[in-house]
Amino acid sequence: MKSESTENKGKPHSSVPSTLPTALVQSLVDNYRDNQLTYINENLGVDDAHSIWFDLPTLKSFIQDIEEQVHLIDPNIPDADLGVRFYYAAYPEEPQEPVPTDYGLRHTLVLIPTKKEENVVCDFNPFPEDKSDVRPVMALAQNHGCLVPPNTTQIESY
């Protein structure tokens, strides 16, 4: 099954782009940095991440994975009932591979698929649980972005 983004590749986007006033974006970012980030840095003694970057192919692939896996279970689920929840998370003090060691204790995001059921948005894992206890239970999720800091090669404008 092709996703809408694959079918429309190269065609003009027909909806109005989602926008916010730049002053509001700056205010929101400043509020976070002046309050939560300052508190975390001062009280946990870390130079916490204040942004995370995902490349478009990763995001598009994740969305396509959600569409494909959910439609394998129920091809009648409309795309409007699917979504992504962004959880704030933090790496352990000593992250394991493939997470870089300098990400320890820093903020990150974990992206989890959602599905609307009876007008309630629920986290949704399309993969069945492995009842054998031999392998860990896997979830359709995304996490491997580029944190800033520690990465200082990313140019930010907010």
How is this structure best described in words?
It is built from 3 helices and 5 strands; from the N terminus they run ααβαββββ. It has helices spanning 4-7, 22-44, 56-73, and strands at residues 51-53, 82-90, 107-117, 120-123, 146-148. The strands form 2 sheets. Strands 2-3-4 form a 3-stranded antiparallel β-sheet. A two-stranded antiparallel ribbon has the order 1-5. Strand 3 and strand 4 form a beta hairpin.
Secondary-structure blueprint:
Layout: H1 4-7, H2 22-44, E1 51-53, H3 56-73, E2 82-90, E3 107-117, E4 120-123, E5 146-148
Antiparallel strand pairs: 1-5, 2-3, 3-4
Beta percentage is 15-25%
Oligomer: single chain
State mean pLDDT (0 to 100 scale). 89
Lateral arrangement of strands in the main beta sheet: 2-3-4
Order of H and E elements: HHEHEEEE
Radius of gyration: 18 Å
The biggest beta sheet is recorded as: 3 strands, antiparallel
Low-confidence stretches: 1-7
Report, as a whole number of angstroms, the end-to-end distance.
Answer: 38 Å
Q: How many strands? A: 5
- Content-based structural category: alpha+beta
C-alpha geometry: globular
The helix content is 25-40%
